[in-house]
Fold this sequence. Notes:
CATH class of the largest domain: Alpha Beta
Largest sheet: 7 strands, mixed
Order of helices and strands: HEEEHHHEHEHHEHEHEHEEHHHEEHEEEH
Number of domains: 2
Number of strands: 15
Shape: globular
Number of helices: 15
Bound molecules: pyridoxal-5'-phosphate
Strand order of the largest sheet: 4-10-9-8-7-5-6
CATH topology of the largest domain: Aspartate Aminotransferase, domain 2
Strand content: 15-25%
Amino acid sequence: MSIQSTNTSPASDLERLDRADVIHGFSALRAQATKDVLIMDSAQGMTVRDQLGREFLDAGAGLWCMNVGYGRQSIADAAAAQMQKMCYFHSFSNFSNEPMVRLSERLLRLAPGNMARVVYANSGSEANDTQIKLVRRYNNILGRTKKKTIIARMSSYHGSTVAAGSLTGLEMVHRTFDLPIPGIRHTLAPDYHRRPAGIDSPEAFSRYLADALNTLIEAEGPDTVAAFIAEPITGAGGVLMPPTGYFREIQKVLKHHDVLMIADEVITGFGRTGRWFASTDLGIEPDLVSVAKGLTSGYFPMSACLISPKVADVLYSDKSEDGMFAHGFTYSGHPVAAAVAHANLDILEQEDLPGNAAKVGDYLISKLRQRLGQHPLVGEIRGKGLLIGIELDADRASRRPFDNPHHAAGLLSRSCLEERLLVRGGHGRVVAALAPPLIATARDADEIAARLERAIERVARGLTASGAH
Ligand SMILES: Cc1ncc(COP(=O)(O)O)c(C=O)c1O
């Protein structure tokens, strides 16, 4: 089966216009001239349909965001009602709106740890940019004007704006854009699958990673290091599970050097890992939390920074210039986004979708291990809840990666598309990342596992045909 469309297809005019007019995010510009354009047209539940009527099972929840599934009437109704009542007003200065105020109370109740304040933005990148500014302001108020460096991790993804893209630990995001900006450093990724030789337990690897962080902080000078940012479970970098004890060891180092902990829960928040927030499960005690994606399940853009009392108290202690917080966006705290978020949270709560993610996630992982665990190309199957990575290796026994991961990753993504299965990749590695909507049933899990197995068989044939294996 080919996913190639024909020139007589109804989508062909749109495809031509798309190629002529649009630069897609994270697309290879030259390849786009010849590559299929998939014009997605309608969606319901777990399924997205393109203009040619081809149906795709969305095991990637769009970009890891479609937590409640497509086509929820109650969310559309909430958006329409709010648009009719008051389609927009800003939240600068002392202007406010009811959906935003009530959402803030709700978020602080749901939040991991003890959070005191909310700052709104529109995307995960903007939330993480805002975190950098909050951290700078916090230390400026405390008079620690040198304490500004933020440490992120290699293989992490925190966004693609100038600042959040600098936090991101993927070379591709930095290359040609002159990133990272000064004041951002990267430490080792919690990549147990590609751990150095001689490390023989997750606990030992956690200590090794914490030592590396400590060494970096000491080399930089602890009085210059302000914060550490981490996804509880690395998403776009290939679904990397923190090894046992990782955050305990890391937080010992952070506390010792008085460095703030920022949990980037943009993917992991709102039920994805089987809990409302992954921080709770992984023993993370964040000072700041970034949320986006599952906050509105992608029905409307919205993100937020959640701020602990420790940071908020300092922010409110500022006596200079009336404590003017000169930051915000035209659409921060958008009333329609907030109304959508409420309707989305209602569904997550009423249908206990975090609970479903835990249950169906366990089932899906066990199915995948059963079907693919012994496959010669499958190096590791890992994850939590409905956030699962299947990593392919050139040699499973020695965990040897592919000589040309780009080629193998391309084959994998094409093969999944040919099986009409949408998955996410893992930048720079050969990973099928699964993050289906949290409404997935055991039958959906069976279907995902079956299609993925067939896709991996296609990859094996493709590698043999190309002489790469
Ligand atoms: C963990 C994490 N943080 C931040 C972002 C950036 O979010 P956005 O694309 O909305 O800017 C992403 C996006 O995938 C993400 O996965």
